[in-house]
Amino acid sequence: MGYSSLSKLRLLTHFTTAEISDADVQSLMPEADRAILRLATVEVYDEKLSGDIDGSNKKFTTAHKPIADTDFDSDVDADDVTVYLVDYDDEMNEVHTETTVSSVNARDGIITLAEAPTTTNAEVGVFADYRYYKMPVDYDVLKLAANYYLAHLCEMKIRTERALQFTTPEPGALPPLTSAKSRWLELALSQLPFAKPLLLGV
Predict the structure, then answer these.
(1) Does residue 76 sit in the same domain as residue 99?
(2) Residue 53's domain spans which residues?
């Protein structure tokens, strides 16, 4: 499951199976999805969540929101965040123990745990790894952007293979094809006005 799809790629573009096979398209789909995720979100690592640690409270809040869908199923749930209870060991080193998440309220940045932590198992606090959207997004827009980006990757592959077919290049002889202007890349970025092109590495 992902944002980009083979059927949508064929619908949006003129690329034939003679130019790029279904198998090759499918091999590029995860890369397209990950590129859009990186453009649309910011990664947060080991953030201390807000919330009372009293043995009864299960709800903790992130500093940033909305929490992002990172597994491309158009739903934000426990699979999109990783939460740790952080305590000290006998030598006072911090120890992270992953804990089970019950539910996620993406819009409000609220993560509900399956069990309430205590000062015994989370003396340092409750921490999380997650991604958040730079601004509220529409999943349909993300999917369209992913398919446009997929088309960009397919176009680069097609052009590279054509160049190699008609030349016998020596190392460094071929110009970097990623430097060429791509209307598919422009279309992908147009769906994400808050994205920075330099993050694409092109």
Answers:
(1) yes
(2) 42-133
Domain boundary among 133, 158, 187: 133
Are 72 and 11 in the same domain? Answer: no
DSSP codes, 12-58: HS---TTTS-HHHHHHHHHHHHHHHHHHHEEEEEEEEPBS--SSS--
List, as one string, the DSSP characters of 80-143: G-EEEEEEE-TTS-EEEEEE-EEEEETTTTEEEESS---TTT-SSEEEEEEEEESS---HHHHH
Highest mean pLDDT among 17-21, 135-139, 166-170, 177-181: 17-21
Question: What pLDDT, on the 0 to 100 scale, is given for residue 1?
Answer: 74
Task: Please indicate, yes or no, whether residues 129 and 67 belong to a single structural domain of this protein.
Answer: yes
pLDDT confidence of residue 177:
46
Q: How many structural domains does the chain have?
A: 2
pTM of the model: 0.83
Residue 177 and residue 153 share a domain: yes
35 lies in the same domain as 48 = no
Q: Is residue 150 part of a domain?
A: yes
Alpha-carbon distance 65 to 79, whole Å?
16
Instruction: Let me know if 166 is exposed, middle or buried by CB neighbors in 10 A (0-12, 13-18, 19+).
Output: exposed
Residue pLDDT, tens place only, 98-147: 999 999 999 999 999 999 999 999 999 999 999 999 888 899 999 999 99
Look at 50 and 165; give whichever has higher pLDDT.
50
